[in-house]
Every structure is written in C-alpha cells, then in structure tokens.
Amino acid sequence: MNYKHLWLLSLLFLTGCSNYEWGWYVLDPRQEQGLANMLFLLKGFSDTIKISLISMLFAMLIGLLVAFPALSSSGLIRGVNRTYVEIIRSVPVLVLLLWVYYGLPTLFDVSLNHFWAGVIALSIAESAFMAEVFRGGIQAIRRGQHEAAHSLGLGYWQTMRLVILPQALRQILPPLGNQFVYILKMSSLVSVIGLSDLTRRANELVVNEYLPLEIYTFLVIEYLVLILLVSQAVRWVEKRVAIPSH
Fold first, then answer.
1. Where do the TM regions start and end (predicted)?
2. Dmax over Cα atoms in the chain, in whole Å?
C-alpha cells in the first residue's frame, strides 16, 4: 500500500469508527460561511511559507559563518563554534521565540513586530543545525581538492568559494531539505506571538466556531500537503544536481 495514502485512510477510520458527529459544514465550500472559513484558513499559507523561506535563508548564512571556526586548527576557535552550537541547540525553539519577541525590545529599546521576531528566533535556532550540516559537508570533500586549488594559486577563501562549497552544497542538499521541512513545522510556533500563519488562523476559527476537531484536522492536512510538496521538490532538485556515478 502506498504510504502517502495512509493519512487519508486514517482520517476515514477516525471519521467512521466514532460516535462523534462531525461538523464538516464549518468548512463546506458549498456553503457561504464554510467557503469563507476555508479561505480564511488557506490565507495562512502566505505567512507560513514567507517566514519559513526567509528564516531558512538567514539560518544558512549564519550557519555557514558559524561552520568556519569548526574547521580551524586552533582549539580555542573550535571551542567558540562548539559553545555556540551547543547553547543554541539546547534552548527550546518556543522559549527562544518568546525571549526574542518580549526580551529583545526591552533589552535594546527597539520595536520588533511578530514577523521579524519569528524570523530572528527561527534563524538563530536553525543556524546551529545548519552549522553542523555545513561543517560535515565541507569536511567530506577530499583533501586533494584543497591541495589542487592551492597548487593553482588560489587562496583559502577563493578555494572555499570556487572549489569546496559548490561540491559541499551537492553533498548536503538532502539534509538542507530536511532542515527546511523542520523550519516549516517549527514555524507553527510563531502563532503564540500573533503572526497570522496557518496555526494562528486555525486557533482563531476554533474560538469562533467551537469545532476544534474539524478545524485542527484540516490544519493537519494543510501542513501534510505543504510538507509533502516541499519534500517532492527537494527530491527533484537532488536528482537534477546529482553527480553522475559514471
């Protein structure tokens, strides 16, 4: 049986094997209010995708910068990298999000809206994992590549930019895709600070309609479809950039 259909069978099982009377009218597109409710939920895709993409970009940039100290021959510099990675990975994403949203404006006397607070928190939280991904990818490149670049007169940063990183990016594409899926799922936490994403809109609709099971089930399907599409896109990109084996 195709595993992609298991979620649908599970939903049908839950719907049929219970005495609960499902109120799917709340999301029935054939009814005016049901259509309005569904469109209200679907509009949350915009903020969810936008905050995930921007956070992923910043997390990659920060992670790449954090990864370079791990490649140093100096134990002190490697220690700085390890300290950052361990601290950030040890802090729950929700706690970091609340600290950024409520703490940074107080600490620096600045105004910070919920969108950029979410971007900052998700970027920092993900950067530690990205640093490890980049470190592993760079170290996986054979030493001969470095030596060949140096023999051509390339400096350290030229070697990294022109020789090592392009190869490393191909190596780390699968974990990068996994981390983007992780950010998509973690983006649901920004609902607690008021960002009108998929989860926030579902919470608001539950308050108005008092049908949490139906609305949250639809929310699960929204995330499932989104993440399956992203996973398929990542696999397609992997095949396009894969290094031929012969």
1. 51-71, 83-102, 215-237
2. 75
